[in-house]
């Protein structure tokens, strides 16, 4: 008996209790109508069950108004409370550059969440069936997926539960015939230009006939197994999250819920070196979560995930103009290009303080070499130059394409761009660091050694010292 099978499925998976308050999403189609009547049968066994209906009019099809009238009549006949919502889905899709299916899903769940909150519902029930599940698994496989994708339609996700995932569509058709129940027919379900319809109407019948009569059950079972195993892997991933990130937000919501709200955490950074020591399955999950939170990617692909794991020092990963990540010192972070590099140069004698890029202050002094004592070398914040070899004033500017010089200790010249990368100077600083030139030749760049030709030697009589400090704020 179909009702008994439905009840056993609800009980086996503990989807809701006999005292639950349930809001049922009803389109007027056969699956949602069957769900309403199965719940009313269940209510006879569970008198404490409280059921209300919710219908969202997408205003996309000519028959949408008739569907709404049908659901209103159904609620009235069954003496059930009804919530109705309408949305300008086509306009919403155009404004947000979404396809109609995705736009409709977002608006529908937004309405269901608000209706559930208003009525105080414990759960929102949707009428996805075992057949829907099988179709979704096949679609995911065709498009390329991992174990997460094989979960397909989740049995329970946040406040949403799907109690019909234990029943095939033909079983519901049989149930409606036996009960003499009417329902609405969505004409778009017969359009084979839509992949899901082609799978439903052509592929699955062929698979059942020529390969496996129980292919729908087996694919649905695969999805449930994947859901259980993913929950275990998710727990492992959550446990490792704080270990491999910094500047991060808290635990994120369930995948389907977080996708709808599109959370981003631009300051998030991921420890790539630590990831590479982990089992690759866990590392990939952590990367996918990072891409979702840092860039707002809803479903990062396998290729995107692998690209991050293979990112070399200084290399970038780009997914659109404003979605660029970079590997700096083994940490993956969002790349923010700052356009504050100087377009012209500054003349500086060293007699007064030099403020540069609103970030640093430079001060200079000249010391007698004999009285200087032991020099405290620190390329990042201080340099010592032979004052008698310098041509003052300095020309101070940001780096330019083609800049190169011979740093202390190197046998020949090297491009400034390569030296900064090798020293792991953060990308955000490379374009705004000051370059100090004497007579048109590079003398020093903070973070790098002084030029060999201006170095202090045992024969130096006067030392030109430049000190760098950070400006407050």
Tell me what the structure shows.
The protein contains 15 helices and 21 strands. It is α+β, with helices and mostly antiparallel strands and 473 residues long. The protein has 3 domains: 2-224, 3-Layer(aba) Sandwich (Rossmann fold), CATH 3.40.50.620; 247-334, Up-down Bundle (Chorismate Mutase Domain, subunit A), CATH 1.20.59.20; 346-470, Phenylalanyl-trna Synthetase, Chain B, domain 3 (Phenylalanyl-tRNA Synthetase, Chain B, domain 3, 3-Layer(bba) Sandwich), CATH 3.50.40.10. Strand 10 and strand 11 form a beta hairpin. The termini are far apart.
Could you give the order of strands across the largest sheet?
3-2-1-4-6-5
Q: Provide a count of the helices.
A: 15
CATH architecture grouping of the largest domain: 3-Layer(aba) Sandwich
For the record, give the distance between the C-alpha atoms at the N and C termini, rounded to a whole number.
72 Å
Domain count, please report it.
3
* Poorly predicted segments: 250-263
Radius of gyration: 33 Å
Shape: elongated
Mean pLDDT: 89
- How much helical structure, as a percent, in the residues? 25-40%
What profile does the largest beta sheet have?
6 strands, mixed
CATH class of the largest domain: Alpha Beta
Structural category is alpha+beta
Report the CATH superfamily of the largest domain.
Answer: HUPs
What name is given to the CATH topology of the largest domain?
A: Rossmann fold
Fraction in beta strands: 15-25%
Number of beta-strand segments:
21
């Amino acid at each position: 008996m179909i009702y008994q099978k439905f009840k056993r499925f609800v009980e086996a998976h503990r989807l809701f209790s006999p005292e639950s308050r349930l809001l049922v999403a009803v389109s007027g189609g056969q699956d949602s109508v069957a769900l309403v009547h199965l719940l009313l049968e269940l209510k006879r066994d569970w008198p404490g069950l409280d059921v209300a209906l919710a219908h969202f009019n997408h205003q996309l099809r000519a028959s949408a108004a008739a569907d709404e009238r049908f659901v209103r009549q159904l609620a009235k006949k069954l003496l059930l409370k009804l919530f109705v919502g309408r949305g300008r889905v086509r306009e919403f899709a155009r404004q947000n550059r979404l396809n109609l299916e995705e736009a409709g899903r977002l608006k529908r769940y937004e309405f269901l969440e608000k209706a559930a909150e208003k009525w105080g519902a414990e759960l929102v029930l949707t009428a996805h069936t075992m057949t829907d599940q099988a179709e979704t698994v096949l679609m995911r496989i065709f498009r390329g997926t991992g174990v997460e994708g094989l979960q397909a339609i989740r049995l329970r996700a946040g406040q949403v539960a799907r109690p019909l995932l234990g029943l095939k569509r033909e079983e519901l058709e049989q149930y409606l015939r036996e009960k003499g129940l009417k329902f609405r027919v969505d004409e778009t379900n017969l359009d084979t230009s839509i992949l899901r319809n082609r799978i439903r109407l052509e592929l699955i019948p062929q698979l059942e006939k020529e390969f496996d009569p129980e292919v729908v059950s087996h694919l649905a079972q695969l999805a449930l197994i994947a859901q259980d195993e993913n929950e275990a892997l998710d727990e492992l991933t959550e446990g490792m999250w704080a270990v491999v990130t910094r500047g991060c937000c808290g635990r994120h919501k369930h995948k389907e819920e977080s996708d709808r709200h599109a959370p981003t955490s631009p300051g998030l950074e991921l420890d790539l070196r630590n990831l590479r020591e982990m089992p690759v399955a866990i590392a990939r999950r952590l990367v996918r979560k990072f891409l979702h939170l840092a860039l707002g990617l809803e479903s990062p692909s396998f290729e995107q995930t692998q690209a991050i794991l293979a990112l070399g020092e200084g290399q970038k990963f780009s997914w659109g103009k404003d979605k660029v990540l970079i590997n700096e010192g083994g940490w993956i972070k969002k790349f923010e290009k700052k356009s504050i590099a100087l377009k012209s140069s500054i003349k500086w004698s060293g007699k007064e303080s030099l403020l540069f890029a609103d970030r640093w202050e430079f001060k200079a002094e000249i010391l007698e070499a004999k009285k200087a004592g032991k020099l405290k070398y620190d390329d990042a914040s201080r340099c010592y130059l032979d004052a008698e070899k310098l041509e003052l004033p300095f020309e101070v500017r940001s780096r330019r394409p083609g800049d190169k010089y011979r740093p202390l200790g190197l046998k020949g010249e090297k491009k400034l761009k390569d030296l900064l990368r090798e020293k792991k100077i953060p990308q955000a600083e490379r374009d705004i660091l000051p370059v100090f030139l004497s007579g048109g030749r590079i003398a020093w760049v903070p973070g790098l050694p002084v030029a060999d030709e201006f170095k202090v030697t045992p024969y130096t009589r006067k030392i030109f010292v430049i000190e760098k400090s950070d400006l407050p704020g």
